[in-house]
Amino acid sequence: MERIDVLVVGAGPAGLAAAIAAREAGCKSLRVIEREERAGGVLRQCIHNGFGLHRFGEELTGPEYAARDIRKAAELGIEIDVSTTVLSVSNDRVVTVISKSRGLETIACGAIVLAMGCRERPRGALSTPGTRPAGIYTAGNAQKMINLMGLMPGKHAVILGSGDIGLIMARRLTLQGAKVLACVEIMPYSGGLNRNIVQCLQDFDIPLYLSHTITDIRGSERLTGVTMSRVDENRVPIKGTETEFECDTLLLSCGLIPENELTQRAGVELDSATGGARVTDRLETSVSGVFACGNVLHVHDLVDYVSEESAVAGRAAYEYAQGARDFAGRVKVVSGNNVRGAVPQFIDKDSTGDVRIMFRVGKILKRARVLVTEGNNELLSVRKPVLVPGEMVNITLSGEKARSAGEITVSAFGGDE
Description:
Layout: E1 2-9, H1 13-24, E2 30-33, H2 53-56, H3 62-75, E3 79-81, E4 84-89, E5 94-99, E6 103-114, E7 118-120, E8 136-138, H4 139-147, E9 156-160, H5 164-175, E10 179-185, H6 194-201, E11 208-210, E12 212-219, E13 223-230, E14 243-246, E15 249-252, E16 256-258, H7 261-265, E17 290-292, H8 303-321, E18 330-335, E19 339-343, E20 346-348, E21 355-361, E22 365-374, E23 377-387, E24 393-397, H9 399-403, E25 407-413
Parallel strand pairs: 1-2, 1-6, 2-3, 6-17, 8-15, 9-10, 9-15, 10-11, 18-25
Antiparallel strand pairs: 4-5, 5-6, 7-16, 12-13, 13-14, 18-20, 19-21, 21-24, 22-23, 22-25
Helix pairs in contact: 1-3, 1-8, 4-5, 5-6
């Protein structure tokens, strides 16, 4: 059995950032496991720009952003095992992996960083009625087909869901000569960033139908059309509001799900709101010495924030591998009014520095106020012009205030609340 200090699962932006941070902190015994044939994760297929503004101060494409971390990892001599699959992670930090080059391996780890990313919600999870013809893809699969394989999914498309990948694919299909007939969103607001709504839909005159969904899929061998219906406040289709679209392609952009099968097998507690692990401000999960970061923890808007967060996990993992810390207790973080899935869920009393808390709101809040309290004691109040569910909220809380509390609650209010 091989023994190492830190093992990172995943060589996307989260895994690379965690590995780089661990190495720069002094970790010499380090491996990164990646099931794909190349490092870089989903960024390899994201050829549009808009990445890196916060971290590098310039606009990069996805491959350019990934290449910087891949080069940095190479310069630091970090071992990345591609085409290698992790079969299991135990709660005593023993990892079993398999590959063609090395066969079956068992690795005992001082600490583990889980950075497997997320996956798209498939048609089967949406309960959309109709036939099962060819021509129905998740937006990410369509993106991979066009950008990495040079294949067109179809010529006339409808997009169900307004997540960022779907919005970006509306533009990409249009630029490649396809006709995007509509982007259909069941909620009364978009699930993507406002800049993507403007740049990917409005700039190309692609209509966005809010409070609508697809209620029928037609076609035998190949998709021939879909039916769109308006929904009420309970998201139930309203009879008599049907609109027919003739199309050969339907893209699904209906949300992302943290890739947490390995996390669950390791016995890690998950958060029902985020779908990821419950973690401390060090990104340590409920299983001692197992850390989680990036989209496997909670789905991010910007890769820049993924990298920043994952660097914290990498450093903390190496610190843990060097010796057990003195446990001084934890402060619980509660998601309050209008707040969904605040991360971290706990704050270690013996950690240092200010605490970044990230969350999403449950509805659109104008003239908003974010409030952090301990009982009736106000710890932080931040004003925001508007908060929308499609964009992550970031706040920074004084570490001294956070660690002296017993339990803190994060809430958000609109101007009329």
